[in-house]
Amino acid sequence: MIKPENQVSIPTRIPAGPRLSIPLRFRDRRRVTILLTLIVLAYVTLMTLPTMIPNHFKLGAALVSFTENIKIMFLQPHLANTTFVTLLGALGQSILLAFLTTLIGSAIAFFFALASTRRLAPTYLVLGIQSFMAVIRAIPTVLWVLIYSVVFGLGANAAVVGITFHSVAYLTKVYADSMDELSPGIIETMQAMGLKKSAIIRQAIIPYLIPSYLSWTFIRFEINFADAIAVGAAAGAGGIGYQLFMSSSFYFNFHEVGVMVYMILAFALVLEIISYRLRSVTHQ
Amino acid sequence: MLTVNHLTKSYDGEKMSLTDVSFSVRPGEVTVIIGPSGAGKTTILRSINQLIRDDDGEILFDDTDMRQLNRRQLRQARCRIGMIFQNYNLIEPLTAIENVLHGCLGTKSNLAGIFSMYRNREKEEALQLLQKVGLGEFAYQQCRNLSGGQKQRVGIARALMQRPKIILCDEPIASLDPKSTVTVMDILRDLAVNDGISVLINLHQVDIARKYADHVIGINNGQVVFDNRAKLLSDVAIANIYQKNVNTEGSLVHEF
Q1: What is the DSSP string of B244-256?
Q2: Domain boundaries, chain B
Q3: Which helix (H) or strand (E) holds B167?
Q4: What is the pLDDT along chain A (284 residues), one digit of tens a residue?
Q5: Which of A1, A183, A193 lies closest to B102 in CB terms?
Q6: Which of residues 27-66 of B touch A (CB under 8 A)?
Q7: Please, which of A33, A239, A267, B182 could form a disulfide with A93 given CB 3.0 to 4.6 Å?
Q8: Do B51 and A202 touch (CB under 8 A)?
Q9: Taking CB atoms and an 8 Å cut-off, how many pairs form between chains A and B?
Q10: Complex-level ipTM
């Protein structure tokens, strides 16, 4: 029973007087703070925007050359320095790089996730692994590849290790989060039947997690594909990213860049269709 | 069979959840624990298979104290204690027969658990158990597609797969409609009478307790206030079990 002094008095009828609007929430000081912060930020942005534009910048000329380049890329794509087969091979290389790193990353991440979910692991392990992974995630993938290229030299090895490294940190987090969402009663039930930990993981946890595993791993595959392209250009890992870098920065051939952009877009579309199908299959 | 002596438990070190709880369960009988919610029924049940670690007392199951076992011994002892839950706790994406087969995994190897390796004999037993609870034709249905009553019956089949000496039921019918309630309680009663399994059930429905129990234990505020044959459960005794009790702050509380 609530003591009288702690009881909140609820008015039985709305007080008389001009009823302009009835608020849906209490006035909250936090909301005022957030609103004020946004207003200040918007003001600062608007004031500093003109200072960012260089003096010799001419908006008209810049727009014209921008549309010119866009037109060359998207309306007049054709090849000059390479063949379509070479580019297809390079695209395949990037896809395989993404596939390999996702595969290795998800396998390693699964075990880290088991060791860092609140459902199975002790708190010190959960906190330790999760904060370590957060540090890895905070540094971008491309930077990890460059760090590893100090060890392995520029090229595919550094790319595989670097992208895998970041994938493990990312997937550990999302896998562990999906395990945390499981009802504790399920694991308790299995323990009550005397099941070993291995059997609990295989028979109770995995069946529930397959849908979210598939979708998260697939999202990471998409990220890794984008990273594989960037890394190809930045760290000389090869693939379509390297070809893109050569055409745009070495030959200055934007017709060729256009072809490659279309190829990458086509594959991205395929990925999108697959992920849509995957979702409708696993979330029935 | 199962004897609980002087069981004591406090969750926060101040308020006692169980105070000196003693009772025993005989084989082949349905024993029902009744009492207001918050009285400690679930704590008692979960202390028996040590899902909850109690503070003091003795839980003799087959003459060994569950409280003294190490991890491995406890796991082995749990293999012979079936448990049924209010919200069934089945692995919903798996089929009914897969869930029933989980009951025999406790005694099998790591490898068998990981690769779902069951002997044909075990699969046959699982099918027979599903038929026994009237779900023969649902063996290959995903459990998420079953109704509440059907899920609870799969839960019973899973517990039976453990070849248990005792089945602990934590509010088994609280989420079920009246018709399913009768089905589930009839099955549990049948297990005690015909298979000689001890059945220990937490309930808050007094009428069901009267109808199905051989023995009734009444709990109020963590203490045993009634421990006798079901036919001796008089209206006075019920009023005593469900009486208004005084909580630590000294104000009167209705607990139902």
Answers
A1: -EE-TTS-EE---
A2: 1-80+165-251, 90-163
A3: strand B166-170
A4: 455 555 555 555 655 666 667 777 777 788 889 999 999 999 999 998 888 877 787 888 989 999 999 999 999 998 988 899 999 999 999 999 999 999 999 999 999 999 999 999 999 999 999 999 999 999 999 999 999 999 998 888 999 999 999 999 999 999 999 999 999 999 999 999 999 999 999 999 999 999 999 999 999 999 999 999 999 888 878 889 999 999 988 888 999 999 999 999 999 999 999 988 888 877 65
A5: A193
A6: 49, 51
A7: A239
A8: no
A9: 78
A10: 0.89
